[in-house]
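Bumping with the actual sequence this time:
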Amino acid sequence: MESLLAGLARYGEGFVGVNVLLNQLGLPLPALPTLIVAGALIASGKLAGGVVFAAAVVASVVADCVWFWAGRRYGYQVLRFLCKVSLSPDTCVRETEGVFERWGFYSLVVSKFIPGFATVGPPIAGALRMPVWRFIGAAAMSAALWAGAALMVGWLFAPAVDRILAWITTHAVVAAL
């Protein structure tokens, strides 16, 4: 835990950007807790809020564009691949396509807050040939809302985040269990 805090304090903006990028590409890295801790560090003046926010948004949009272009290039093969890890792979593609066709642009704007849809939304937008400029706008809005909400939670609850991190550092074994 101390190495996470040291890494965030030392490389803050870049650390957040890389963490968000890898998370949004599909690696099981904890982007949301990292953003919350970064928000607490912003509140204490250890990180520049605007730069952290921009790094998170840009990283998220870049990852979404990778999935969008994969969907545009490979179509439903990408969705089938992503849905293989789903609890119900048979209905995953149909349900995702249904949500996207019904809500379109707006489904992408809130996609970061819907488990599972954040990953399959960009490739389905690509597969269904959503205009690139609309996709980038939706991805940017979604990333801004998601990252902004997490950073704001960390900023608002900075004293509680500090207490939790101190407890985790002191009781590492119990926290790990």
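The tokens above came from a reply further down the thread. DSSP finds ten helices and no strands in the chain.
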